[in-house]
Write a structure and sequence with these properties.
Blueprint (H helix, E strand, L loop, with lengths): L2 H29 L7 H23 L5 H15 L2 H13 L3 H28 L1
Length: 128
């Protein structure tokens, strides 16, 4: 499959995942309207992590997903649904490979740099 074909597969899945994120997050947040906690995002991230972990396990242990299916489901749909799922799955993979220090470093960097980037972007938006 050509690189452009791969990009198209990921893009199609990303469209579906992003639309699903919008629907699921919004619906969940409306159900929990009395809270100021971002429960919609939390639900999306947890569901995305669960789905990516499951699909990763199926792909590894049962060898049932072709490369194009992996791109569409795991990179496209779940990447559009949430990138947190990818981060969590990669950390779990490091732990399974007995790379505890790298898994911890990945977790710390993802969280700390993610917060720092979000805060920096917020400050930049205020400054401009």
């Amino acid at each position: 499959m050509s690189y452009l074909g791969q990009v198209m597969i990921v893009g199609a899945g990303g469209f579906i995942g992003s639309a699903l994120r919008f629907v699921v997050s919004g619906w969940t947040q409306r159900l929990a309207a009395a809270t100021v906690f971002p429960v919609g995002t939390l639900v999306v991230n947890v569901l995305g992590c669960l789905a990516l972990g499951y699909l990763g396990g199926v792909a590894e242990y049962r060898q049932v997903l072709e490369p194009g299916q992996r791109l569409f489901l795991m990179v496209g749909i779940l990447g559009g649904f949430t990138t947190f799922s990818t981060f969590a799955f990669e950390s779990v993979s490091l732990l399974q490979d007995a790379e505890v220090a790298r898994a911890l470093l990945n977790t710390m960097l993802q969280v700390l740099l993610g917060f720092a980037a979000a805060f920096g972007g917020y400050l930049l938006a205020r400054a401009i």
